[in-house]
Fold this sequence. Notes:
InterPro entries: AAA_lid_NorR (IPR058031), Homeodomain-like_sf (IPR009057), HTH_Fis (IPR002197), P-loop_NTPase (IPR027417), Sig_transdc_resp-reg_PrpR_N (IPR010524), Sigma_54_int (IPR002078)
Helix content: 40-55%
Strand content: 15-25%
Oligomer: single chain
Domain Sigma-54 factor interaction: 303-477
Pfam families: AAA_lid_14, HTH_8, PrpR_N
Shape: globular
Protein name: PrpR N-terminal domain-containing protein
Radius of gyration: 26 Å
Distance between the termini: 41 Å
Keywords: ATP-binding, Nucleotide-binding, Transcription, Transcription regulation
Amino acid sequence: MTTIIQECIPRFPQLSIQYDVGDLAKGAELASQAERNGAEIIISRGGTAQLIKEAVTIPVIDVQLSGYDMIRSLTLASQFNGKTAIVGFSNITSGAQSIIDLMDLPLKVYTIRSSEDVARLLLELKASGYRQIVGDVITVDTARTYGLEGLLIQSGKEAILRALEDAQLVFRYLSKNQAISVILNNLVTQEHPNLLILDDRNDIVFENLTDFKQNPLTDNYIHLINTNLEFEQSQVQHMFMVDDYQLTVTAHETTLNNKGYKVYTLEKGQPYQFAQFGITTYTDITIEPIVAESPAMQVMLKNIRALYENHEPIYLLGHADSGKSFLVKHMHQMYSGGGLLLQIDLSQVPAGHLHKIPLSKVRNVELNHIEQRLHDEEVTSFIQTCLNRQIGVFILGEEPLNPYWTLDIELSTMMMPSLADRLEDLAPLIQQFLTDYYHKYGTAAVKIKEDALQLIREQVPQMTVSQLKHLIKQAALNEQDYVISTDTLSRLLHQQSATNTMRLNGTLKEIEKEIIQHVLQEENNNQSKAADRLGINRATLWRKLKE
């Protein structure tokens, strides 16, 4: 909602307004810090607002969900091609049920009484075939952790403005010389050099981090650990990549004076020193859903899983932006059981470095540009080492395997379906993209008209998944209505056709640089996204731009 907040702030020039993002315990922590820094009023919403009220001594204004907000979110949710459940506390579900009954929407409502009910209920709903969960932050975050689509019910501009007006009214009665009380607690123990203790609200009540300049645990890391603690009911261990080192977190729950606490022990591993050689680690911990409504994708996923579970190396054949790497990430998230995914660009790795890679925590490897190391025994030996350790091996390529390659390993080739082979996936892909942009940018569009969808179907033979995603992004940003119209889409397709014309004169290196600059421009100079579309890593992209 930051975009909406930014639009509202200029309407209140007499107030000094600052904003930050953090849900539940993190939001309470940010609010406490804001109070220590002199804030006189806090604005929040839902469960986070309730936690903040307990954490601070200054007024807290709760942003209320309007009926307009609820209708907009439920309309978006009803466009999803699958079973959808509304999960939340009674303040959300009571209003949601009334709107669902009134509008005859195909949605089911489930009311929870505490945040502890969320994980159990979502697992039951997933087992019953539900694929999308609509609710507040904790519900949506837990849903995504379990591989479900999550749709956040957001407060609109009207609700934000109303809260700011209330804050302005309250501000008139506040003293500007409010005393600031800061309590510091700094305890250090030799026995546990890196220790965090969180209370039942996930507030940090003890922190001793000898090996870290600051707490390396993000909100997502803490949420994942706590979700697994609640599910496993025993000690759990997770490994993450932070900057250039591996972070291992061991966590368990304990009780003292009838109060529950979570104890985290952190271990900082040795620096991962190979990133400059095209060896990177995949650190995203949320399970990203994959669209597989089409028979082509269903067969693809079934066969890849069968090969993966039998520890066979897989050769994924397809265009650079056909989703090969995304599919590898999906397999890693769903079936690896934790650990690390290494993405290796063999064109960047110097000879002799593959066997220096520490593999103790690795569960899967993704190998790119193997065509440049076809006769290299080191590559063969490295792959065999991974297979012996039952590490999944995915080799990505754009050309069929040459039968005369000296790679002395039997590979199973799986061809990535083109978008033209996945027509059944077109509508759910577009809906997923629209939902992402609704969350990220606060865009108005929540669905696409059938005639606009038909226009895209006609363009599919010349389009990749990445190009489709870019087109829908531009349409969502430019559409002022709730439904993407044919006019908006036609205009963008015409502009895209005009801007796709590039000069092809000059040397091969000059043409290559022109293409890179073109993709960078389309991705708003985001090098990570540009590198992903081009099928190279950021180090290679940076080097080519400097040449």
